[in-house]
Amino acid sequence: MRLSVWIAAVMVVAFAASAAAQSAPERKGPPPGGHQPPPEAFTACTDKSEGDAVTMTMPDGKTMAATCAKASDGRLAARPDKMPDHKGPPPDRQ
């Protein structure tokens, strides 16, 4: 009797764990490995080499000096020479 209760309890726990794993929400947000650069950073380094100096133009028209470096996915992206002050939300991407 005790063995059958124990087996039933193990089966319930296994079923619950399986159901929870299958219903887990899809991950949203940045990919594993950290933040991805904005599209403008990749555009600025088109046809450039790692270490090249570039000027990156943001959607609001502001420009910033940057250097091409490998992003976490291996593509070249402009990395600002001086990180901008973040005052408020990021600019809209339209």
UniProtKB/TrEMBL annotation:
Top-rank taxon: Bacteria
Pro residues bias (residue ranges): 30-40
Biased composition (Basic and acidic residues): 72-94
Annotated region described as Disordered, given as residue ranges: 18-50, 70-94
Keyword terms, alphabetized: Signal
Signal peptide feature range: 1-19
Protein name: Uncharacterized protein
Organism: Magnetospirillum aberrantis SpK
